[in-house]
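Input/output pair, single chain:
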Amino acid sequence: MSPSTLRRLDQLAVLLLLLWAGAALGFGIFSAPVLFRELSSRDVAGRIAGLIIGRLDWAAWAAFGLASLSWGGRWVAEVKDDLVGPIRLWSAALTVALLMCLASTFILTPKIQAIRARINAPIETLAPDHADRMAYNKAHGLSRNLFFLRILLALGMAATVGLLPRKNPEPAPEALS
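Output:
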């Protein structure tokens, strides 16, 4: 890929990662607290927040997945010589972010929904030591942590995409002989 194509892909990756991180931060910092404070039932607020998180999870797949276009064209050409460098660190961050998307979308969210469907009552009506409430709190806490870690990864990846190499390294002189 040409350096100008890589530059455009980098700009697209930064835009997508920052858009997703902004939407996620906006929800996590501004919207979610208002939902839980203003709605009469924490259960209703939780259901609304869950729907929004579900959509943000799919948007995260799109943001991190499309950001990988910026990485993909470099991997084969750039990774041959560096033991640890920008491309490998960015690759690790991308892999972790996609694994978090996988866990949130296909493991935690369905588990939370199954618990809610099984009890068919607001979570706060259950005793604090009830097995379903404890399982819900554990899954919800893990989901929340993954959500904020993905925000940090998106911001870090957006900030460092400019450090990724944009052209193939020159071959060593002895390789030319």
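The radius of gyration is 21 Å. Residues 3-164 form one domain.
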